[in-house]
Amino acid sequence: MEELRFYNTFTRRKEPFKPIIADEVRMYTCGPTVHDFAHLGNYRAYIFEDILRRTLKFFGYSVIQVMNLTDVDDKTIRKSRERGVTLQEYTREYTESFFEDLDALRIERAEFYPEATKHIPEMVELIEKLIANGHTYETDGSIYFRISSFPAYGRLANVKLDDLRSGVRVDSDEYEKEDVRDFALWKSWTPDDGDVFWDTSIGKGRPGWHIECSAMSTKYLGEHFDIHSGGVDNIFPHHENEIAQSLCGYGGDFVNVWMHNAHLMVNSEKMSKSLNNFFKLKEVTSTGISPRAVRYFLLSAHYRQPLNLVYDPDNNITDSFDAASGALDRIDEFRTKLAELQKQGEDSGEAGDDILDIIDKARSSFKGALGNDLDISGALGALFGMIKDVNRLLDEAQVTAVDAVALDDLLMDWDRVLGVIRPEERGEIDVERIEALIEERKQARQAKDFARSDEIRDLLASEGIIIQDTPGGVRWRKK
Ligand code: AMP
Ligand code: ZN
Q: Which of 57-71, 270-284, 357-371, 440-454 shows the lowest mean pLDDT across its residues?
């Protein structure tokens, strides 16, 4: 297997990557808090992780990825109560929207999306271990992790315990903690929580945020796994706290490689809910910008470099997505030429030497770039360099149908990582075929052939087509 190198936040170095178990990579990627729609900044993180996952597979590894869904915290509780619905009803809408966005952005599904509310026993078990190992204290029913009990605290973020003490802002409502640096493992129930609580051996309440990632990563990946990632804002305190919990609770090793993406910025500030400078994916795509262009834009800068969004729809400024669409047009035009050549000529035999030469060089520079800490600029450079070289030969009519097949194979191979080369599928709904299937289903139902009618409904559902039987007839829509 060729070499992969990743920058490890923990050691602050680029290191050769070696999985713990040969050929299999286990990775944990911090996921969304489903209290609202995710914004493009969040999707920068999830696209970086998608490129990481696809690159690992491209290099021949199998991947087991876990992404948690935080479906209980202060915000989800407060907002569900404001809306007068259960916590579950409240979070469902945002969870569904999250998965729709992942599909639109062609983000491959992780193997597991554990929800915090379904893993309370695992969290309680870990907190019990921490209590037994002497790392906690209790105030008014809440349980805190005592940071001074873990001397290695601060190593990931490269901060010293003493600096933290002086540097951290003291929240006025956190007097119950012995030390401002300590964090809650378990929050005891208060009337503000309404019916959101769990009655457990450590009391009536709910988990703090950090504990879910330690407990759920261990459940699905084991105590020691290969990669843990998130945005740079997760380094401190979230990932630092995870390290403290996992090492003090389970002992042994935790994570081999910590990887963090830089932020998506808007006018030099991090895109975030609190700054109110965010855009949701559907908000952008409803103006006609394709999700494929959004994906291209978000993956086009190296993950450790900040990426600036130039987009102000009120003033018709769409520069970031225009640049992405321009790049995609170049790819599409190139593939159209290849397709025309394939239609015209014989497509058996060997590709020409010139083309094979171009393909070999491009293939190795693409893979070499990705292997070098996901150097996307290098990989895209190989792609567009190849297009430029072949376009020159196309102008001289030096490319055959066989060459075109080989070139398209190369593009499809690269698309396993990039996920932007195939054209948009969403707009390409074959209405006639769908309506014919719906008519066939209607007739099957009339003939009481429910097996066939269900089969058709499932087939359409698998393609994202939802059908509804209404008094006025069958309605359908694309999810
Ligand atoms: P949150 O829902 O805020 O916990 O964020 C979910 C993921 O998105 C985390 O990995 C964050 O680090 C990441 N994230 C949040 N805002 C941005 C941003 N502006 N740019 C890149 N990543 C972000
Ligand atoms: Zn996490």
A: 440-454
- Among 71, 107, 233, 236, name the best residue to mutate to test ligand 1's pocket (greatest count of ligand atoms within 8 A of Cβ): 233
pTM as predicted = 0.88
The DSSP code sequence of 418-463 is H--SSPP-TT---HHHHHHHHHHHHHHHHTT-HHHHHHHHHHHHHT
Q: Is the pLDDT of residue 202 over 90?
A: yes
**Centroid of ligand 1 to alpha carbon of 427 (angstroms):** 29
Class (C level, CATH) for 5-261 = alpha beta
The predicted structure's pLDDT at residue 170:
43
Regarding the beta carbon of 231 and ligand 1, being less than 6 Å apart is answered yes
209 in ligand 1 pocket by Cβ < 6 Å?
A: no
Closest atom of ligand 1 relative to the 38 alpha carbon: 2
What is the position in ligand 1's atom list of the atom closest to the CA of 232?
A: 12
- Topology of domain 323-418, CATH: Four Helix Bundle (Hemerythrin (Met), subunit A) (1.20.120)
- Could you list the beta-strand ranges (E) of 197-254: 198-200, 203-207, 225-231
